[in-house]
Amino acid sequence: MHRFPIRVYYEDTDMGGVVYYANYLRFIERARSDWVRNLGNDQNAMRADGLIWVVQRVEADYRLPARFDDELLIETEVLKVSPARLIMGQRVMRAEVEIFRAKVTVACVTAEGKPRRLPAEIRALS
Amino acid sequence: MHRFPIRVYYEDTDMGGVVYYANYLRFIERARSDWVRNLGNDQNAMRADGLIWVVQRVEADYRLPARFDDELLIETEVLKVSPARLIMGQRVMRAEVEIFRAKVTVACVTAEGKPRRLPAEIRALS
Amino acid sequence: MHRFPIRVYYEDTDMGGVVYYANYLRFIERARSDWVRNLGNDQNAMRADGLIWVVQRVEADYRLPARFDDELLIETEVLKVSPARLIMGQRVMRAEVEIFRAKVTVACVTAEGKPRRLPAEIRALS
Amino acid sequence: MHRFPIRVYYEDTDMGGVVYYANYLRFIERARSDWVRNLGNDQNAMRADGLIWVVQRVEADYRLPARFDDELLIETEVLKVSPARLIMGQRVMRAEVEIFRAKVTVACVTAEGKPRRLPAEIRALS
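The joint structure predicted for all components is written out below.
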């Protein structure tokens, strides 16, 4: 289980006084970027090789609102790895309470959008 | 079917050269805001009454990337209305091609997060 | 004088109930993109040629807050054009009232950040 | 001198491959929020009292681009404090190199936009 801390800033909130719903996708992407960096995956090098990560599917459940100054913890785990696709489970926690949960499917593509095998360090997780 | 045009600007793209995945949720929220405004729902008045719309669940499929300057059309339709919950189907089209699709469940809550019945003009759709 | 309409959506607001201060820079960039497109400048083609627009300096004055659902008009005019630099005056208006004003200096650079002459259609404005 | 670390994520970049210009304002706002929190200023409590911080003016100079995965340090210092207004100097550094610099004027207002004296813990800095 990978854990990644986030604090909520003004930019993340909306006029409802809570975190805007799209911004949870920003939060969990930061956690995924940290997770692949820790596995030795360099997204700048991948991009220089003409490969990028793309998100194919997101299923997101919003349980409780997060507010300004909240300290959140993002938990990320691998649900499934195939040669071409990685499915991750991600949760946003405040203290011991889950406030958001998502299942995210990602893949690797060329600049023209053609699918490629995942980097070796990710396939090794299967 | 509600239709809402969007153009892709610099702010929407990321270093992959395409629209950042979280920004599709911004796009489809603009379309939903336009749709409820057309139905006579005033979100400023609701908020003055202590009520806000919240998203409970999103299922999103990313089919093709959108790029800078693309002209997109967001199609929104009601899939299901109950007293407490509204489920909408939304698609982002470029010309006749679907590039993104989402199923979005929304509800109304008080500032304290307590669920309330949907506004009458929305319940009338059921 | 170039005029460009904007509507304020949820994504633009923050917990203060008004438009988040950084988002005015997104608004005025949309207007600049529309302005250069109208002049025949294709930013996708420029990028394929290895050139991008960069902002060098912004002076911004926040006069009045904008709120959800506000219909704003962005006025853009050229203040000064030199071979390497363009200075623009931009104002965000609500009805006849100015709510934001900025002076923005932009230039063209290569992917490595080296300065280049502005596109011919822009230099022609001097 | 207040120092605040930032890492650049995908969400911060644009199709130019660098940090989008408006996002520096998000970065320096995070640093200001951290700075006032350290001084004992609770923005949630202020808001409950009907007061919010607003930005009145920004002068920003963009010196060098920041890129994905960059680790940046934001330096914040007080340039001037008056009863109604605070002027801060903020710099974004990468290693020892300044890549962005801004002078930001902030004030406190009521929900109706009326100016109020700055919180005591801020006025004490003068």
